[in-house]
Design a protein that fits this description.
Order of helices and strands: HEHEHEHHEEEHEHHEEEEEEEEEE
Largest sheet: 6 strands, antiparallel, barrel
Shape: globular
Strand order of the largest sheet: 12-15-14-13-16-17
CATH superfamily of the largest domain: HUPs
Structural class: alpha/beta
Number of strands: 17
Helix content: 10-25%
CATH architecture of the largest domain: 3-Layer(aba) Sandwich
Length: 375
């Protein structure tokens, strides 16, 4: 009877296994903790960069040799799946493959193209987490009977038991912290989410992977867009947005160069600008979509004291106005600011390259409290 009671208390967790070491160790730790673990590989969407307008500009300029495009043969996901399957086999856990490629194209790729066409710089990793990993994956796992889902994200979750309130904190490994990409999560989602590697340093994760006899213990970290992997954004956009020559101008309206499409450039960008004027370096400070004009300026012209944020999500409801620590880019350090009820974000010190379309993510110290979209 006691054995049966213990068996009844066992919880099932579906782990999103990408083929990397972090999600593999997450699965291993959960199994060690007594969970019934099921590994799930989410088949990603693959861009077709060998057709259409892709050849239009970059290849004419003879830049093809500089473009590394492992997606072109559509084999990247197969290798990642094989690595994930090896880890599941080593751990002795069931393994599933779920194809979310169509949903990814609809929810994430369409969003990316729409934002670039509007002159903004989207954050596909945030949207991928919102719509795919903690949207479709969570819903399907729960429907199949899972009690929880887990991922290899570097973030720490805690719970105030009396109030049934969940909180998220930056990871122990500040170099790997991924809380910036998780600001869209809700209390309803968080109660089903586990993040087993958030309180570990990356070297500790690799050491555990070796201990668990996982073949990917030394595998390099993935880079690039969520699910897709390495992606040269300009080449990708050329498949969807036709090049259109335009002027590069200073903020005093002096023409100093030419560009091949205003959509391909982002605020704060320095490289890739065809500028025929000394006195730089010059950075993109503004874009006029209708006139197809890029405005550039020196570093001092890229900074701002305030910006507007919309489309908020709060993990725990705030009180306005509030003092916050905010990140306006993934790798940027948190800076002090004040956020008011209408979405005006006022920095205590001027902030550089605040980019429309990117996420403004808010913290109280190391606690992630929410975020929004910079407009």
């Amino acid at each position: 009877m006691d054995s049966m009671n213990r068996q009844e208390k066992r919880k099932t967790v579906y782990v999103g296994m990408s083929g990397g070491v972090d999600s593999s160790v997450a699965a291993a730790l959960l199994k060690k903790q007594g969970f019934d673990v099921v590994g799930v590989f989410m088949k990603q969407w693959q861009p077709n960069l060998d057709s259409g307008i892709t050849n239009y500009e970059l290849r004419i300029k003879n830049k093809q040799s500089a473009i590394r495009n492992p997606q072109s043969d559509n084999c990247l996901w197969k290798q990642e799946r094989e690595d994930a399957m090896r880890s599941a086999t080593a751990l002795g856990i069931p393994f599933k493959t779920w194809d979310f490629s169509k949903e990814y194209e609809k929810e994430v790729v369409s969003y990316m193209i729409r934002e670039y066409k509007a002159g903004r710089t989207p954050n596909p990793d945030v949207m991928c987490n919102k719509e795919i990993k903690f949207g479709l994956f969570l819903k399907r796992a729960l429907k199949e009977g899972a009690d929880y889902i887990a991922t290899g994200h570097y973030v720490i979750k805690s719970k105030i038991k009396k109030k049934e309130i969940h909180k998220l904190f930056q990871a122990k490994d500040q170099n790997k912290d991924q809380s910036y990409f998780l600001w869209t999560l809700t209390q309803e989602q968080l109660k089903y989410c586990l993040f087993p590697v958030g309180d570990l340093l990356k070297p500790e994760v690799r050491k555990l992977a070796k201990k668990f006899k996982l073949s990917n213990y030394a595998k390099k970290d993935s880079q690039g867009v969520c699910f897709i992997g390495p992606l040269y954004m300009k080449e990708f956009l050329l498949s969807y947005i036709k090049p259109k020559k335009g002027k590069i101008m200073t903020t005093s309206n002096k023409i100093i160069g030419e560009h091949d499409g205003v959509y391909y450039y982002t605020i704060g960008q320095r490289h890739g600008l065809d500028i025929k004027l000394g006195g730089g370096p010059y950075y993109v400070v503004a874009k006029d979509i209708k006139k197809n004009v890029i405005y550039v300026g020196i570093d001092a012209e890229v900074i701002t004291r305030n910006t507007r944020v919309e489309e908020f999500n709060w993990i725990n409801p705030p009180k306005f106005p509030m003092n916050v620590d905010v990140k306006v880019r993934y790798r940027a350090p948190s800076v002090k600011a004040v956020l008011n009820k209408i979405g005006e974000l006022i920095f205590k010190k001027p902030e550089r390259a605040v980019t429309p379309g990117q996420s403004a993510v808010f913290y109280r110290g190391k606690e992630l409290i929410g975020g929004g979209i910079i407009r």
